[in-house]
Design goal:
Elements: H1 2-8, H2 21-24, H3 31-40, E1 47-49, H4 58-65, E2 78-80, H5 85-98, E3 102-105, E4 122-125, E5 132-136, E6 141-145, H6 150-157, H7 176-181, H8 189-192, H9 195-198, E7 199-205, E8 211-214, H10 228-231, E9 240-247, E10 254-262, H11 268-279, E11 283-290, H12 291-299, H13 308-311, E12 316-324, H14 327-343, E13 351-354, H15 358-369, H16 371-378, E14 380-387, H17 393-406, E15 415-423, E16 428-435, H18 440-446, H19 449-454, H20 479-492
Parallel strand pairs: 2-4, 3-4
Antiparallel strand pairs: 1-2, 5-6, 6-9, 7-8, 7-9, 10-12, 10-13, 11-12, 11-15, 14-16, 15-16
Helix pairs in contact: 11-14, 12-16
């Protein structure tokens, strides 16, 4: 017991939600189970366990038991790292027979506690499944193991003049299986759409250990139910994704970006309308950053896109990216856009800076992608990833700030800042509350207040439900929808072993 407490106290606070009756009936891993797992897995290093038969040090399991924010903390005694789908299948079958809970884990970069155990479930890490199975440079179809890191896949297809259809700040450590399991959105969704469209096929180990092989490379297949869609965004609650077939788009021949300083938030929507009209087919990203988020990124060394004189008087910023086929054509469009914006009778922007070379292009994106890192350096973050009408982005941030101020929590010793940034192109606001520490008082002030702000939007735009939002699912799904989700879960996983306590209460 002392070892379990040792892990738990590394987190600022343990966030738990009520477990289902099935989850409470699951069994802990025993030494006999560990010995059996050792026979299944090909390498001794593929089994980590503090149980006597292996005696791994507890510290080695910390990175698997705890999320990167230090917010969610598990008590797993055992981590398994299979290399093949068949090994995953054998492990899952044993766990199902023995009623042992399983938490599938990718890069553990999630923000809602979906990839760490709530109790002492066995952690099944996909990190050893890193093979690219095939790539067709003509069609752009990539088939890969689920444990491949997103950046590695980006580097793999780049020499073939293709790109991955999604791009995330965590691309250096997140895994494609986790991306698909959470239906990750990211910075390219405006241009290339969601993974529900770009994923062509999946290989999934089901809760009884059987393998669902739908790893097709067909663009068109209209033969009955499209079962793969059930696993995209299911967060490992219906099965473990072990293989992914995904369509990678051709790499743009020319990419550029510009950062714009706006005097007031009310200009964001008319600016978006203008940018869409003038840039048309080459527009690939339209990112919003409020002034507090921008200043925080600069403070923590994420780059300085504009001089102090250029940011003076700016209430927020917009980063626009273009991706097209001919640099001269795209630059002409961007220059025309900037000229028209600056020369308007009532300018929507104060100023704008256009990237002049690849280094400047990267530095502008580094500022936007660096907001997340800056937040983690500033303090403990309560992260709300919501879909709301674009016109309410600022209102959501302001009302949350006022809520915390009215509770006497907005000060250096409790809540340091409330910021907003996100993807204007798909209505996704990242509302971050930065605190000195995670506390029940702040949690209670924020929830359900933030979820009630969402109205008919979504309590999770792209991060998923995980453990954090199971109690809030009803804000975005009606009773009938949730009832059918539970029926689907019961059909696939009658023993409740797959990622217990996640998505559904």
């Amino acid at each position: 017991m002392s070892r379990l407490w040792h892990w738990s106290r590394r987190c600022s606070r343990i966030f738990t939600r009520p477990n289902s009756s099935l989850a409470s009936q699951l069994n802990s891993v025993t030494d006999a189970d560990v010995l059996h797992f050792s026979k299944i897995l090909s390498s001794p290093s593929s089994v980590l366990s503090i149980l006597p038969s292996i005696s791994t040090s507890p510290e080695e399991l910390d990175i698997y038991n705890n999320d990167w924010m230090g917010k969610y903390c598990g008590k797993s005694t055992t981590v398994l790292k299979p290399k093949t789908t068949e090994e995953v299948s054998q492990i899952v079958k044993w766990c199902n027979d023995k009623r042992i809970g399983i938490v599938p884990q990718g890069g553990n970069t999630g923000l809602v506690g979906g990839g760490v155990p709530l109790r002492d479930e066995v952690i099944l890490s996909l990190s050893n499944m890193t093979q690219v199975r095939s790539f067709d440079p003509i069609s752009g179809i990539l088939v890969t193991d689920a444990g491949c890191i997103l950046q590695s896949l980006t580097d793999y297809v780049a020499p073939h003049n293709h790109i991955m259809p999604l791009d995330l700040g965590a691309k250096g450590s997140c895994q494609i299986g986790g991306n698909v399991s959470t239906n990750a959105g990211g910075l390219r969704l405006l241009r290339y759409g969601s993974l529900h469209g770009s994923v062509l096929g999946l290989e999934v180990v089901l809760p009884d250990g059987s393998i669902l092989d739908q790893l097709t490379t067909l663009r068109k297949d209209n033969t009955g139910y499209d079962l793969k869609q059930l696993f995209i965004g299911a967060e490992g609650t219906l099965g473990i994704i072990t293989g992914v077939s995904i369509l990678t788009p051709p790499a743009p021949q020319a990419s550029n970006n510009v950062i714009l300083a706006l005097p007031r938030f009310e200009n964001v929507l008319p600016l978006y309308k203008t940018v869409k009209r003038q840039l048309s087919e080459i527009l690939s990203a339209f990112e919003f950053i409020d002034r507090t988020a921008y200043d925080l990124a600069v403070k923590h060394g994420q780059g300085r896109a504009l001089s102090e004189e250029e940011v003076e008087g700016a209430e927020c910023f917009v980063l626009v990216e273009t991706s097209g086929g001919r640099r001269e054509h795209d630059e002409e469009k961007l220059n025309d856009l900037l000229e028209s914006l600056l020369e308007a009778e009532e300018p929507l922007i104060n100023t704008g800076v256009l990237a002049q070379n690849p280094a400047q292009f990267s530095s502008l994106w580094a500022l936007r992608e660096g907001v997340t890192e800056a937040v983690s350096k500033e303090g403990k973050a309560y992260k709300y990833d919501i879909s709301v009408p674009l016109s309410t982005f600022k209102e959501c941030v302001d009302l949350t700030r006022e809520r915390l101020r009215s509770k006497g929590l907005l000060n250096d010793d409790q809540v340091k800042a409330v910021i907003g940034y996100g993807h204007v192109g798909d209505g996704n606001l990242h509302l971050n509350v930065i605190a000195k520490a995670y506390t029940p008082e702040i949690q209670d002030a924020l929830e359900p207040f933030v979820y009630e702000l969402v109205g008919k939007g979504s309590v999770s735009a792209e991060h998923g439900i995980g453990a954090m939002k199971t109690h809030a699912l009803h804000y975005s799904k009606d009773e009938t929808s949730i009832a059918w989700m539970k029926k689907i879960k019961a059909i696939f996983d009658p023993n409740g072993i797959m990622n217990p306590g996640k998505v559904l209460e």
